[in-house]
Amino acid sequence: MAVRDDRSDVKQTTAGFRGPLMVQSLTSAKSKFLSLIKEPEELVYLFLSIAIGLGYGAGYLVITTILATSLLLIIYFGLVKRKIIKTNEYNLVIDWKDVNIKFDALITLISEYTDTVKLIRLDSNKNTNSTVLLITPNENTSIDKLMNELRLKDESINISFFEAKTSW
Q: Is 61 exposed, middle or buried (0-12, 13-18, 19+ CB in 10 A)?
């Protein structure tokens, strides 16, 4: 019985399958990896942890500790400084049922209490109207005054405020 040393037909057959499978698995891994990152800061922490692991793994304990500590302090104080800056941009969500209330009238009323008003979304059907606005309230105006004025237009109006740059 002769043993066959030439296995080129097997290599050619499997080589055709290996490439697409590898591309598919890399694409799948890339999409899973990118879906886990929600904020750009998370990517910084990921690469920082990789660098720290490589530094300690290579035996550079003192240098890695000093660099990692200094980078973490810089990041911490940078975040503290950024959180001191007050955010005053809000999303205003209004739902109303009164057909006599026009959107332009609401915008005019809201503009009296805000510096900027930007339309994000407007929905209208037979029974209800809904709008989402990006607003910056005046410094000397409270949100309560704006809500009271809107409620004077329609008692059954629904009003919601939330910070504009919130990542849910």
A: exposed
> Of the residues 51, 84, 117, which one is the last residue of a structural domain?
84
For the full predicted model, state whether its pTM sits above 0.70: no
Q: What angle do CA 140, 144, 145 make, to 5 degrees?
A: 65
Is residue 159 a contact partner of residue 99, using CB atoms and an 8 Å limit?
no
The radius of gyration of the chain from alpha carbons, rounded to an integer in Å, stands at 29
Q: 168 in a domain, yes or no?
A: no
Residue-wise pLDDT for 73-91, tens only, equals 988 887 766 655 566 788 8
Cα–Cα distances in Å, from 89 out to 1, 92, 105, 130, 164? 83, 10, 22, 19, 6
